[in-house]
Design a protein that fits this description.
It is an enzyme of class 2 (transferase). With 817 residues, this protein is of the alpha/beta class. Helix content is 49%, strand content 15%. A hairpin with a 2-residue loop joins strand 9 and strand 10. Bound molecules: 1-deoxy-1-acetylamino-beta-D-gluco-2-heptulopyranosonamide (CR6). 1-deoxy-1-acetylamino-beta-D-gluco-2-heptulopyranosonamide (CR6) binds next to helix 6.
Length: 817
């Protein structure tokens, strides 16, 4: 294939010229008059030039090869900054640095000018971003489909210790990484009615939507690492259709017509900020249908050749459903095949069942999406009909397999009857999907045994596991350049795309030079973090203290409260005189967490963390020994600075609640030791790094079940454990709220009388484990050894390995070289 414009050469000179051209002709400014933002945009567009021919060629090859593609459907892609990754993948880091230095521009300043696209809440959205990175790097024909939210995850600020949300205006200063394609917009219908008619003796249905919106695609480059490939992420933005407002304009209602435009554009306006606790809002269902309808249409009409026989669709694509958010794609494909393409029901179902696979990301019942029939029927009447028919056929199968067990049919029905008639999206996905997977061994086991047990008995071969992973490009190579250099010096650079090779580091635990350098790297990463937090938040970090980090969404099941009770206990022990200050090993505890804006308890916990931090940090009695930092607005960019600096990774969810976790993997890979429960992927991390290099504590999942079944009474733990009692009393008595005893009453009462996530039950075990941490940290050499072994033994957690597992176990697709 011939690319019309040649890519600039990989030289400082060529790069400089391309950059100046972008600055002058793209931004329309002279170098001397350019702002940092101008320079950032010009730089981004320069790097883009180097990716462009690879992008066109990747698309061309994908079309030519006729290979099976993976279409990853996800309502969230938490991408993080793009510039760094693009420089890395093109091998331009040094050239760009030198070119800019020649112009007296500091590359790191331009890097910092980028506002990250925060189009996701947490682990699920970040996982999707890691997966498209791996797919591209592994040369698998693939495309990511999602929503271009105008406002991503809110920007968190603190006012008097309380979380206050600000809109995330990530598009404000221009977004050089996206390519809008208005000419490729597609129309999506909503509402209206269906009518049935007979054709060739067959009952058919016709849907007439009442209103529609346009979906406009924005394409993003997804560069592979040093493999000459650039895949595509296609995010959809909602616009008003012309027909829609013309009608209103013609009737003379100008203002109404403009309002209609806003109404349509609302669909992609904002990312719902709930992580694992969906709110069941109508607009959210609109978002979900909007993006999957656009995506299926795009794949069928634009990605596939014009004359493609859709009976063969399973040869060409697997649509991977990232949680239940895109599951409405199942009835949508049925509708396209049956209503638009004239398929019979059975042949359409045959095709559909082979084209979808479903990943479940939770064990929390409240996270499983359920849409009221009333709402679904009003918004998508034809889809509701289709879901009913799928359910009828499915229940017939259940009744045939289990005659005289009507209760079973009710339990397994896609339609729930109580508390209101509603569609269980996870069940629909399980019935339709060729495969269903959980995201860590334990999670997949619990899915089979608990959440979807009756489905797993009916179709055991449908269920499988793919343990999550993280991309080593972003979370090791980019985030931790110094450790990367050390590793490459020791074992060569192959690990970046073959992370199991980190195993080759094991012998270096006995190499004094290597261990010294390893320690130095950690220390310099702490200094780097100190610089970032100083500048960003005005916080100071002592690089000689143990850096103890808990960063993740704020959720009761993750138990930030347990970590906080540890802090309060240490504070109490010193200030009461029980523990001489010299005996307290210096610690800096860092929290990072956003709470869903409507999640009252989570927001109260944020307020309490900030209040404890304010009290502790101002108290001279613990100065230099205990410090609590809570930088606001934890995001991917901050994670990339925090994780490489951490000594201790807090992964302390109640066993059986965290599906996998992915932060846990990032920390271990960067040489932090984990203190954690036997939950999610912690289980596999511990198996790999070895018990002696992991601080395990707490109830196991079966023990949790036993405690709860016996009737858990948290107050009993309070009564029996003096140090716990003192910590809770300290919070309740106003120590952290200027004497106000009411401030944290909801938190204290909740722990004493409810404590759904067994914080009090695990308190003592957690404190004991923390004592083991202090002791271990005191032996610098042994600690370094454990840290190195954590790096060496966690190569398994590369998202490349996850993708490899998906390819073999679920997708039946492979790389095209
Ligand atoms: N909240 C899980 O809770 C998992 C990610 C990615 C989550 C977390 O344990 O690592 O997905 N689940 O699989 C959902 O979002 C529903 C998450 O990020």
């Amino acid at each position: 294939m011939i690319v019309p414009t040649p890519t600039p050469d990989l030289t400082v000179d060529a790069f400089t010229r391309a950059f100046l051209r972008e600055l002058n002709f793209g931004q329309g400014v002279e170098l001397s008059a350019s702002s940092v933002n101008d320079q950032y945009l010009a730089l981004a567009r320069t790097v883009r030039q180097y990716l462009m021919s690879r992008w066109l060629e990747t698309q061309h090859r994908q079309r030519e090869s006729q290979a099976k593609s993976v279409a990853y459907l996800s309502a969230e892609f938490l991408l993080g900054r793009q510039l760094d990754n693009a420089l890395l993948c093109t091998g331009l880091e040094e050239i760009a640095d030198e070119a800019l230095r020649g112009l007296d521009i500091d590359l790191s300043e331009l890097r910092d000018a980028e506002i990250e696209p925060g189009l996701g809440n947490g682990g699920l959205g970040r996982l999707a971003a890691c997966f498209i990175d791996s797919l591209s790097t592994m040369s698998v024909p693939s495309i990511g489909y999602g929503i271009r939210y105008e406002y991503g995850i809110f920007r968190q600020t603190f006012v008097d210790g309380h979380q206050v949300e600000q809109p995330d205006t990530w598009l404000e200063l221009g977004s050089p990484w996206e390519f809008p394609h208005p000419e490729a917009a597609v129309t999506v219908g909503f509402g209206g009615q269906t009518e049935s008619y007979t054709e060739d003796g067959e009952q058919r249905s016709r849907w007439t939507p009442a209103w529609s919106v346009l979906g406009m695609p924005y394409n993003y480059m997804v560069p592979g690492y040093h493999n000459g490939r650039v895949s595509t992420l296609r995010l959809w933005s909602a616009r008003a259709t012309r027909a829609f407002d013309l009608q209103i304009f013609n009737s003379g209602h100008y203002a109404d017509a403009v309002r209609a435009q806003t109404f349509a554009e609302n669909i992609s306006k904002v990312l719902y900020p709930e992580d694992s606790t969906p709110q069941g809002k109508e607009l959210r269902l609109q978002q979900q249908y909007f993006f999957v309808a656009c995506s299926l249409r795009n794949f069928i009409e634009d990605v596939l050749p014009a004359d493609f026989d859709l009976h063969r669709l399973p040869e060409r694509v697997m649509f991977q459903l990232n949680d239940t958010h895109p599951v409405i794609a199942v009835p949508e494909l049925m509708r396209i095949l049956v209503d638009e393409k004239g398929f019979g029901w059975d042949e359409a179902w045959e095709v559909t069942q082979q084209c979808f696979a479903y990943t479940c990301h939770t064990l929390l019942p409240e996270a499983l999406e359920v849409w009221p029939v009333e709402l679904l029927g009003r918004l998508l009447p034809r889809h509701l009909e289709i879901i009913y028919r799928i359910n009828d056929d499915f229940l017939a199968q259940v009744r045939a397999t289990y005659p005289r067990d009507e209760l079973k049919a009710r339990r397994m029905s896609i339609i729930a009857e109580h508390p209101e008639r509603a569609v269980r999206m996870a069940y629909l996905a399980t019935v339709a999907g060729a495969k269903v997977n959980g995201v860590a061994e334990l999670h997949s086991q619990l899915l089979r045994d608990k959440v979807l047990d009756e489905f797993a008995t009916l179709w055991p071969e449908k269920f499988t596991n793919v343990t999550n992973g993280v991309t080593p490009r972003r979370f090791l190579r980019l985030a931790n350049p110094e450790l990367s250099r050390l590793i490459t010096d020791a074992i060569g650079g192959g690990w970046v795309t073959d992370l199991e090779r980190l195993r080759e580091l094991e012998p270096f635990v006995d190499d004094p030079e290597f261990t010294r350098r390893f320690r130095d790297v950690k220390r310099r990463n702490k200094l780097r973090l100190a610089g970032v937090l100083e500048k960003r938040d005005g916080l100071t970090v002592d690089p000689d203290s143990l850096l103890d980090v808990m960063v993740k969404r704020l959720h009761e099941y993750k138990r930030q409260m347990l970590k906080l009770l540890h802090v309060v206990t240490l504070y109490d022990r010193v200030t009461s005189g029980e523990l001489p200050i010299e005996e307290l090993a210096p610690r800096t505890i860092v929290f990072g967490a956003k709470a869903a804006p409507g999640y009252k308890m989570a927001k109260d916990i944020i307020w309490l963390i900030n209040s404890v931090a304010a009290t502790v940090n101002a108290d001279p009695r613990v100065e230099g020994r205990l410090k609590v930092l809570f930088p606001a607005n934890y995001n991917v960019t901050l994670a990339e600075k925090l994780i490489p600096a951490a000594d201790l990774s807090e992964q302390i969810s109640l066993a059986g609640k965290e599906a996998s976790g992915t932060g846990n993997m990032k920390f271990a890979l960067n040489g932090a030791l984990t203190i954690g429960t036997d939950d999610g992927a912690n289980v596999e991390i511990r198996q790999l790094v070895g018990d002696e290099n992991f601080f395990l504590f707490g109830l196991t999942e079966p023990e949790v079940t036993t405690v709860v079944d016996k009737g858990y009474r948290p107050a009993a733990y309070y009564e029996a454990n003096e140090s716990l009692r003192r910590a809770l009393d300290m919070i309740a008595s106003g120590t952290f709220s200027h004497g106000d005893r009411h401030a944290f009453e909801p938190i204290v009462s909740n722990l004493l009388y409810q404590d759904r996530f067994l914080v009090l039950a695990d308190y003592q075990a957690y404190l004991d484990a923390q004592e083991r941490v202090d002791e271990a940290y005191g032996d610098e050499e042994a600690w370094t050894r454990s840290a190195i072994l954590n790096v060496a033994r966690t190569g398994f957690f590369s998202s490349d390995r996850s993708i490899h597992d998906y390819l073999g176990r679920i997708w039946g697709a492979g790389p095209v070289h």
